[in-house]
Amino acid sequence: MITAKRVETEEEKNDAFLVRQQVFVAEQGVPVHLELDDFDQSAVHFVAYDRELPIGAGRIREPEPGIAKVERVCILPNYRGKHLGNLMMEKMESYAKETGLTSVKLNAQSYAVPFYEKLQYEITSPEFMDAGIPHRAMKKEL
């Protein structure tokens, strides 16, 4: 059974970090010092599980009043294409709404732009590089 949830324990946070390390560092070659950052201390983390196996992760923070910033959304390769990204985004957007945030911003890897467009995000920037990977800024009103 696959579930996604807001992280509540150190073990769950470590599970989210494990997924991020597998996707961003091992698979995509992002340096660890860029993947794990100071925002991890204050961000609200989310994790997806297949029973007890961590398979997805993401985080959300409030860089400016009323605006959520969704970051580090990832799903392990064997679980992609099964709408788990939708599940993660649904959990994070619900959290943002519940806490009174009015819009969500994110920096999508360019290949993932169509995924976010299906979730009603709009491109707000030209393409730019982050950690050697092309990205586009996107935004959605809640």
Summarize the structure.
The chain has 142 residues and is an alpha+beta fold. 30% of the residues lie in helices and 38% in strands. Strands 1, 2, 3, 4, 5, 6, 7 and 8 form an 8-stranded mixed β-sheet that branches.
- How would a textbook summarize the main sheet? 8 strands, mixed
Give the domain tally: 1
Shape: globular
Distance between the termini: 29 Å
CATH superfamily: Gcn5-related N-acetyltransferase (GNAT)
Quick check: average pLDDT? 96
As for the CATH topology, it is Aminopeptidase
Rg to the nearest angstrom? 14 Å
How is this structure best described in words?
The chain is of the alpha+beta class and 142 residues long. It has a single domain, classed as 3-Layer(aba) Sandwich (Aminopeptidase). Helix content is 30%, strand content 38%. The protein contains four helices and eight strands. Strands 1, 2, 3, 4, 5, 6, 7 and 8 form an eight-stranded mixed β-sheet that branches. Strand 2 and strand 3 form a beta hairpin. The longest helix is centred in the N-terminal third of the chain and has 18 residues. The protein is globular and about 35 Å long. The mean pLDDT is 96.
Entry keywords:
142 residues, alpha+beta, Aminopeptidase, 8-stranded mixed beta sheet, 8 strands, 30% helix
Q: Strands, helices and their partners?
A:
Layout: E1 2-6, H1 10-27, H2 32-35, E2 44-50, E3 53-64, E4 67-75, H3 84-98, E5 103-109, H4 113-118, E6 122-123, E7 128-130, E8 133-141
Parallel strand pairs: 4-5
Antiparallel strand pairs: 1-2, 2-3, 3-4, 5-8, 6-8, 7-8
